[in-house]
Amino acid sequence: MGSIRRLDSKGTLFLDFRYAGQRLREYTALADTPMNRKRLQKALERIEGEIALGTFDYEKTFGKPLPAKSGQTDSEASSNDAEASQPTTRSGTPLFKDFADMWFAECEVSWRRSYRVTQRGSLDQYLIPYFGDKEVGHITKADVLAFRASLAKVPARKRLSTLSNRRINSVMKPLRQILNEAADRLDFTSAFRNIKPLKMKRSDVIPFTLDEVQRILTTVRADFRSYFTVRFFTGMRTGEVHGLKWKYVDFERRLILVREAIVMKEEDELKTDGSVRDIQMTDLVFDALQAQLKVTGKLSEFVFCNRKGEPIDNQNFLNRVWSPLLRHLQLPHRRAYQMRHTAATLWLAAGEAPEWIARQLGHTSTEMLFRVYSRYVPNLTRRDGSAMERLLKQHISVAPVQGIVMRLPEEGVMLSGADQAGAHTASSEAAANDALNPTTLKAGPGVLPQAGEVSPAAAAYEAQKAEAFEVLPAPRRRNESAVGAGASNRSQTGTGQGDAEIAALLKPPPLPPFLRHG
């Protein structure tokens, strides 16, 4: 398997791969940057794919003939092109078990304790018994695939099924690393080339509803009520809760400092660097920890512990508390880790910022948050479309406008002198009556409005006025004779001064008879 390497003397990158039975290095002028490494990695993957298919043309790719091996003629070099697509092995290499032990010793210094345990277990339980006595350079791709097929038949821990794809991939990971490292050091083609991991089923996320959380908190044993409250409303992982110490509980700032965890019954580092975080306490969590302080504050350094002051044993908790509680409440059985998922979905349902939620959970980005949890929000809040419905009902109305239409003072000032004179030839009451009478609206040129129908021109005019008019309750319409008398009196009085006209315009209309007192 080829690699992208750095030329230290110039700080540039070069390709390092094998072809035609020899190791080749192709130098570039590209600086060592993540973008350039990504570009070269794609080119290297294309080259190795063509080599595997037997279609790789070195001269066409690099613009120069393939260099011959030292002490080898050109004809001998060209004869190796046909063999280039076949994986190469090498004799005289160490046994797999010896190289695997050396690889483990070199790498374990950079691993967490729990990861060292799992990797050592994969070596001792699966890899060394199968490949141990073979030379690492003689292991072929067929051997690797046959080993993976055998893993698929191994019974799982509970003997009810075989190993899952996730477990098989975790066993194959150290095998890939060992073979690739050996191939790079001993100059042969790795047998793990172009072997992809098995597809894994997405883990089920089944959060509890608010009603189920309430039932659990009111039913659980009193000595575990605070424990459940913290897990449901902080989103802490199992090991983080069990490893929580009182020195990491800051009541003054209402923060939980996540710094350690219990893994495989021992104190260990956190899962990732992003897991180091400060979790804000809600009132429920604050009160629960205050109550827990009175119980275990002087007994142990751990917040949640047994009677001996030792951290809670997870398997004992599952067998004696978690599973019996779900059975008693007749809830479907699910992993205790679902309490973390519940916290995430409740935060999303409450409308908290996704970036804040990701920090609370110990995620470095919101990608996992949206990919795993967001699909549960509509089921929890019933907000799927209803929020838009409420917004439209509050601000949008299609009901017809009824009442007295009154021009606002700023629009009266904006009117031209001619428009003002025409606008005040009739009283506001008569104008309102005319506006309410569809028979008084004039049709556009060449169009005769029918009875009870508003002409398009009048409709457009009314729409244009809508923004500057205030709608008031309409008074009861007077009879035609009263309107005519009022019109004759106004013709005798005249228009008056501008200020008087504006004052008359702003004068509120008389109350309708049914609202008058006495």
Question: What is the fold's blueprint, element by element?
Answer:
Blueprint: E1 3-7, E2 12-19, E3 22-31, H1 34-53, H2 58-62, H3 74-79, H4 96-107, H5 113-131, H6 141-151, H7 165-186, H8 210-219, H9 222-234, H10 238-242, E4 249-250, E5 255-258, E6 261-263, E7 266-268, E8 277-280, H11 283-296, H12 314-329, H13 338-349, H14 354-361, H15 367-372, H16 377-381, H17 386-395, E9 404-407, H18 409-414, H19 417-423, H20 428-436, H21 456-465, E10 469-472, H22 480-493, H23 498-506
Antiparallel strand pairs: 1-2, 2-3, 4-5, 5-8, 6-7, 9-10
Helix pairs in contact: 4-5, 5-7, 8-9, 9-11, 9-13
Architecture overview:
- The chain is mainly α and 518 residues long.
- The protein folds into 4 domains: 3-83, no CATH class; 96-186, Orthogonal Bundle (DNA polymerase, domain 1); 210-381, Intergrase catalytic core (hpI Integrase, Chain A, Orthogonal Bundle), CATH 1.10.443.10; 404-444 and 452-515, no CATH class.
- The protein is 48% helix and 9% strand.
- It is built from 23 helices and 10 strands.
- Strands 1-2-3 form a 3-stranded antiparallel β-sheet.
- Strand 2 and strand 3 form a beta hairpin.
- The chain is extended, with a radius of gyration of 41 Å.
